[in-house]
């Protein structure tokens, strides 16, 4: 049961798009949390704290996305198996260097921003302004973080 006035078929399409965003957000959370744990080198403290800020923000983003899926009357995915099936975020293999961590985080945030933009188009087509609001906020957050990561790469130290 849903508390929205959006037709059932549209709710299912929007929830499916949101489920992909949820999966990618969760896997990006796991990725940057791992970077936080494994940061090393002369900029260790800065990277450790930066990745902590990112994973905390990503963790906070999960509930609003999942709860919107539930408000649309659909089950929110909540298992690693479901996230793996729904996500299109590539893994980062091995033990990346600091510059590779920064680049992978940048690519991840850009990827999730694109995925959220795709879901936004689905929400807008369904005239689902609440979901559009959730997604607009997510896009803004990912774009801001991507900008900051790109700026870090421009300093000449992070690039190999």
Automatic annotation (TrEMBL):
Ferritin/DPS domain ranges (all copies): 16-157
Keyword terms: Membrane, Transmembrane, Transmembrane helix
PANTHER family membership: DNA PROTECTION DURING STARVATION PROTEIN, GENERAL STRESS PROTEIN 20U
Keyword Transmembrane set for record: yes
A UniProt-annotated Pfam family: Ferritin
TM regions (residue ranges): 12-30
Similarity annotation: Belongs to the Dps family.
Gene3D superfamilies according to UniProt: 1.20.1260.10
GO molecular function: ferric iron binding; oxidoreductase activity, acting on metal ions
Name of this chain's protein: DNA starvation/stationary phase protection protein
């Amino acid at each position: 049961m849903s508390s929205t006035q959006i037709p059932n078929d549209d709710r299912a399409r929007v929830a499916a798009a949101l489920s992909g965003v949820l999966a990618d957000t969760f896997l990006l959370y796991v990725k940057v949390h791992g970077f936080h744990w494994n940061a090393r080198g002369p900029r260790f403290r800065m990277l450790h704290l930066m990745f902590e800020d990112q994973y905390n923000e990503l963790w906070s983003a999960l509930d609003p996305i999942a709860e919107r899926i539930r408000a649309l009357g659909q089950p929110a995915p909540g298992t690693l198996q479901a996230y793996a099936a729904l996500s299109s975020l590539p893994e980062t293999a091995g033990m990346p260097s600091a510059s590779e961590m920064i680049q992978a985080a940048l690519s991840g945030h850009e990827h999730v921003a694109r995925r959220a933009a795709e879901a936004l188009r689905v929400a807008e087509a369904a005239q689902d302004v609440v979901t559009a609001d959730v997604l607009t906020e997510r896009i803004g957050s990912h774009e801001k973080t991507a900008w900051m990561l790109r700026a870090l790469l421009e300093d000449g130290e992070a690039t190999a």
